């Protein structure tokens, strides 16, 4: 049996691949569970600088959850709660991963596949990518944490357009409405995503992790604590900060160590 999730390291960048190309990478429970496990494994890897997540086969990032198994796994409220319990660690693993996460999006990015992409930090799409959450066809209500993430990205009216009408957005429309970070020609999307990962990996990892955490934290209405307000200044005590200043003055490439 093929592994539902593949991952491959290239120096400081890891690629995580949704691996069900025969089902257009639709997520079944085994895939959700394994994605959560993989993201938990990667979060503690201090050598890592960036994660790229993509779909196998090049024709779809992810066509959604695998509805073919729903009569066995998600056919009642109790089953839906249990399904969500097993699905949530994958989505939160992407959100809470200390390393920046890029979604490399080719083809269909629908339903559960779009939910995966939403919880990534950047979404780089090919021109032929398509985006949607047509749950109206199932009589299903999007779980509230996922709805919150969608509304945060695209706004209430655009989120309802996807959910109420079941519209499918082109890549350009997704970009205009804030869902896609960048859109390039299909033949260039892999190069662009990995070029982005390389640029991230060349930066100071402490700064990258701090920006990822605080870009989300500053949206929280709870007042920032004194410790949180002080954290950016404490970064100036790190070896990486000293190295960055040294390299800038020497007109050299910095050698960051994450310390």
Q: Would you write up a description of this structure?
A:
The strands form 2 sheets. The protein has a 6-stranded mixed β-sheet, sandwiched between helices. The protein has a 4-stranded mixed β-sheet with strand order 4-6-8-9. 47% of the residues lie in helices and 16% in strands. It has 11 helices and 10 strands. Strand 1 (5-10) and strand 2 form a beta hairpin. The protein is of the alpha/beta class. It has helices spanning 29-43, 70-73, 77-96, 112-118, 144-154, 156-165, 171-176, 189-202, 205-217, 226-234, 239-250, and strands at residues 5-10, 13-18, 50-55, 60-62, 101-105, 108-110, 122-126, 130-132, 169-170, 182-184. The longest helix is centred in the middle third of the chain and has 20 residues, at 77-96. Helix 1 packs parallel to helix 3 (77-96) and helix 5 (144-154) crosses helix 6. The chain is globular and about 60 Å long. It has 2 domains: 5-200, Alpha-Beta Complex (2-enoyl-CoA Hydratase, Chain A, domain 1), CATH 3.90.226.10; 204-250. It starts with a strand and ends in a 9-residue tail after the last helix.
